[in-house]
Amino acid sequence: MTAPHKILVIGAGNPDRADDGIGAMVARRLGQLLPADVAVLTRSGDMLSLIDDWAAFDAVFCIDAAAPIGAPGRVHRIDLTAGALPREIALTSSHAFGLAEAIELAQALGLALPRIIVYAVEGRCFDAGAAMAPEVAATAGAIADRIIAEIATLRQEAGEVASHA
Amino acid sequence: MATKTIRVDYLARIEGEGALDLEVSDGRVTSAQLRIFEPPRFFEAFLRGRSYLETPDIVARICGICPIAYQMSAVHAIENAFGASVGGQLRALRRLIYCGEWIESHALHVVMLHAPDFLGYPDGIRMARDHGDAVRNGLALKKAGNELIRVLGGREIHPVNVKPGGFHRVSHPRELLPVAEILKRASELARDLVRWVATFPFPDFTSNYEFVALRHPDEYPFNEGRLVSNRGIDVDIRDYDGEFEERHVAHSTALHSVVKRRGAYLVGPLARYALNFDRLPPPIQALAGEAGLGPVCRNPFQSIIVRALEIVYACEEALRLIAGYEPPDAASVPLTPRTSTGFGCTEAPRGICWHRYDFEADGTIRTARIVPPTSQNQPSIEADLAAVATAFLDQPDETIRDRCEQSIRNYDPCISCSAHFLKLSVHRT
To answer: Is there a contact between A108 and B128 if contact means CB atoms under 8 Å apart?
Structure first.
């Protein structure tokens, strides 16, 4: 696989819907911490445009809330290089096409990136106007740190590939 | 006596949260209720006490798919109340941004939400594996509409550039030139889309709807016109309450609208098309004929063709408006608030979106009323469901369920933007 040079980070979800705001929260944090050549976006509502958003990139990190399957605040890292989203992880969406559907559609159309990594955070409450659960909000820092480290590793791999070219 | 229940726990191709209950007794559908149970969203209450200046940004939040419709109806109502008129290029820009909304909303529904019904796929993603080019073209159309809204509205979703009296900022012609190039390609894609959906197998089903839409002296309607129907309604939009009324029903948190003297009516593409066919440019009329449609279409399943035709129209109209565009001297006309009442009614992708506001002398909103298209269509949806279910009663419950879901999607309902579950129960006794 080609080592990625152009990297995009997407925080998905509605910041006004309690735990659904975790993606935007992490993205805001990363926007201040990542190098300027790493693009950081937030997206809510219809996610189909993500397929266009990532068209010019080599790798994308997505952060989104997921429906609870036992432990609000639990973080799942899913590397889609190897396949589809696991069935038990249901990314939340208030619209017909959320992040999961956008990724699946891109895969069906051959428009998925070679490297898509999703950080899914199990939420508890998605009510409009409600506050984010503390255990969900508490994951933001650790997720940001992990993504920063992953991007550094990817960049290192890219540098090594370039130096061997 | 046996009771049979079919339950569909997840329907991902409508916007909103609802359920459907069918009661079947002695081989007859005795009741078909579209239950909308999501909580009221209180936008009309939010607007009370706010300045008229805040209205476009507040009402844009009602819908992520059709925010322009809410913004346009609101600003027209405000200008109507304050005795102002927006003409010339500002009027043209409003029409132009509305073209963007029709293109993106219709493209999403036609290709990703509705087409899978006719081709036997559970969703657009599964359909994409076999009809990749059609889906790619649909996404390109949606992107073209979104781009138009982004350029004129400041962003694709919940645009921020619309204000009472016009816009906060108007585009320079050079900003619109790249959009025109996109739209030229989109217009071709839309024509192909019409030809593609016209090949779908359509159930032999028609209904004798009362169509209601705006009608303008010269134009296929977006922002202006009289409220007309095929059964004699022809009134100014301020007289909406004289002809129509909203009613509470126990099974829905959304009000039902009916013609006072008759009952259910239909708004949206089929109604616009039937009442304004003569306002379509001849090439689009010819394309409709090529697709097998006459000047009136009463088969709700064929609404997918009419939506595709309206995408073609919106692309062509947008190109015409861009070609004639010259930046206006001012981005908006000045408004002077006064104690007043104003009315606005525009054609959202799903049908007429009617607003009424009462203002204090300083422009503070005293009361607001908003009648969205889907609430107006609810009684017609239920009538269609009963008729469709009756036609398929001898079929397995699975078939009835599929046809009923498809019937709901004929309307492209935008129940709300908060969830997407449909539970269907068929009770046979």
So the answer is: yes
B39-84: pLDDT as tens digits: 667 888 899 999 999 999 999 988 878 899 999 999 999 999 999 9
CB contact B179 to A (< 8 Å)? no
Please provide the DSSP assignment of A12-80 as one string: ES-TTSGGGGHHHHHHHHHHHHS-TTSEEEEE-S--TTHHHHTTT-SEEEEEEEE--SS-TT-EEEEET
B128–A51 CB contact, under 8 Å: no
- Mutation pick from B42, B418, B421, B422 vs chain A, by most beta carbons of A within 10 Å, is B418
For the stretch B195-223, pLDDT in tens is 999 999 999 999 999 999 999 999 999 99
B124 CB within 8 Å of a chain A CB: yes
Q: Kindly report which listed range (A35-49, A91-105, B72-86, B291-305) carries the lowest average pLDDT score.
A: A91-105
Q: Contact B104/B139 with Cβ under 8 angstroms?
A: no
Smallest CA–CA separation between B327 and chain A, in Å? 30
**B275 to B270, B279, B305: CA distances (angstroms):** 9, 9, 16
Distance CA B129, CA B125 (A): 7
> What local confidence, expressed as pLDDT, does residue A159 receive?
75
Question: How many Å separate Cα B404 from the centre of its chain?
Answer: 20
Residue of A nearest to B158 (CA): A45
Nearest to B135 among A46, A94, A109 (CB): A109
**Count of CB pairs separated by less than 8 Å, A with B:** 52
B369: domain range?
Answer: 43-376
Which residue type does A118 have? V
A42 touches chain B (CB under 8 A): no
Mutation for B interface: A47, A97, A125, A126, most B CBs within 10 A: A97
Please give the pLDDT value at position B286: 98
Give the residue from chain A lying closest to B127, CA to CA.
A108
Any idea what the CATH number is for the domain that residue B104 is in? 1.10.645.10
CATH topology of domain A7-164: Rossmann fold (3.40.50)
d(CA B53, CA B59): 11
- Say which residue, B388 or B87, is predicted with more confidence: B87
Pick the closest to residue A14 from B419, B114, B238 (CA basis).
B419
Are residues B14 and A95, on separate chains, in Cβ contact within 8 Å? Answer: no
Asked whether residue B284 is domain-assigned, the answer is yes
Could you tell me if B112 lies within 8 Å of chain A, comparing CB atoms?
yes
CA angle, B277 then B281 then B287, to 5°? 80
CB contact under 8 A, A96 and B420: yes
Q: H/E element holding B31?
A: strand B28-36
Q: Is residue B191 part of a domain?
A: yes
Q: Give the ipTM.
A: 0.80
A14 interfacial to chain B (CB closer than 8 Å): no
Mean pLDDT lowest for which of A45-49, A139-143, A158-162? A158-162
| Number of structural domains in chain B | 1
Residues in chain A: 165
Residue with the bigger pLDDT between B180 and B124: it is B180
